[in-house]
Amino acid sequence: MQNIVLKHFKWNCRFQTNLLFLQKDVFMAEWYEKYLSIYDKPFSEVPQEVIDGTRERLAGLQSAEPVASIVIVAYNEEKHLPACLWSLSDIQCKYPVEFIGVDNESKDRTAEIYEKMGVTYYTEHQHTCGYARQCGLDQSKGRFYMCIDSDTIYPPHYFEIMIDELMKPGVSAVASLWSFYPNERFSKLGLKIYESCRDIYLRLQSINRPELSVRGMAFAYVAEYAKKEGYRVELLRGEDGSMALTMKKYGKIKFVYDKRCRVITSYSSFKEGTLMKAMWNRFKSYGIVRLFSKTDHYEDAKDNFLKK
To answer: Which of 79, 75, 99 is nearest to 89 (CA)?
Structure first.
């Protein structure tokens, strides 16, 4: 009886200690908080010193002979693009890079933001993420192509670590995990629990079907292979997973779990009102059966094609 009580006491102490560290980690100031100060705000509210500083730092990072092309795609992202570019201007990377913007014919000030914050951009008039990413791929000069979504904020060591992994033998593509920024709907602690459960699922899924765990905002690959294959521009969504599936022909898709590669993104794909409902909906949609099988073929949903 004493042994049972002692074991319970030790387990309870460990649980409380882990919970304490989790709460401490959750409520510490985060690296991305300064970028959130302009996130979701119109360009007219972005301080001039942020605009000027971002332009100056991006110019200093831009290389004529890049190892990697950092390609930012945007459609009507006036309220998110400045924060994304600000975070890109703060990167710490030992490899030379280039920055390329793609404006998917936006109706807001997206093109103006590229100009004023110092990013050379191209206008893609055909509207899908596939067309936009293909436009950036066609213009890229780097050995590696780094997909960037304009509603996403990137940590300073993200690119260097991802490129390190891409340079390893047999690796054709790399992907990392992502988090949502806390807001009035979802607390830091709630998001931490939700994302921990989701990350476990993604790790298991990436063993047999890594292409299903890839998201375009945190994805990079060998440009040579991608230029041979091209993006599926006719798809409304899933062009990133389709490219990842193609990359499997050339090598391994490596997942990077380093917390320094965890990007912060918006809730554009998050429609549920509660985290529990979101978790349940994803479990119902995906299940666990596919975790234990492999495939190189998927049927396209009929509603996932660009209307001609």
So the answer is: 99
Please answer whether residues 157 and 260 qualify as being in contact, where contact means their C-beta atoms are separated by less than 8 angstroms.
yes
DSSP state of 289: G
Please say whether the beta carbons of 253 and 174 come within 8 A.
yes
The CA distance from 143 to 38, in Å, is 33
* Domains of the chain listed by start with CATH number: 29-297 (3.90.550.10)
The letter for the amino acid at 94 is K
- Count Cβ atoms within 10 A of the Cβ of residue 92 and give its class: 0-12 exposed, 13-18 middle, 19 or more buried: exposed
- With b for 16 or more beta-carbon neighbours within 10 A and e for fewer, the 226-252 pattern comes to beeeebbbebeebbbbbbbbbbbebbe
C-alpha 265/C-alpha 282 separation (Å) is 18
Q: What is the DSSP secondary structure assignment for residue 301, as one 8-state letter?
A: P
**Radius of gyration in angstroms for the set of CA atoms belonging to the chain, rounded to a whole number:** 21
What are the Cα distances from residue 261, in Å, to 91, 111, 128, 295, 298?
12, 28, 26, 28, 29
CA distance readout (Å), 249 to 102, 234, 244: 27, 21, 9
pTM value is 0.88
156-198 tens-digit pLDDT: 999 999 999 999 999 999 999 999 998 888 888 999 999 999 9
Alpha carbons 141 and 68: distance in angstroms, whole number:
8
Contact 253, 173 (CB under 8 A): yes
Helix axes 188-208, 275-286, angle to 10 degrees: 10
CA torsion sign, 58 to 59 to 61 to 66? positive
Q: At what angle do helices 48-61 and 81-89 cross, to 10 degrees?
A: 50
DSSP 133-180: HHHHHHH--SSEEEEEETT-B--TTHHHHHHHHHTSTTEEEEEE-EEE
Question: For the segment 124-152, what is each residue's pLDDT rounded down to a tens digit?
Answer: 999 899 999 999 999 999 999 999 999 99
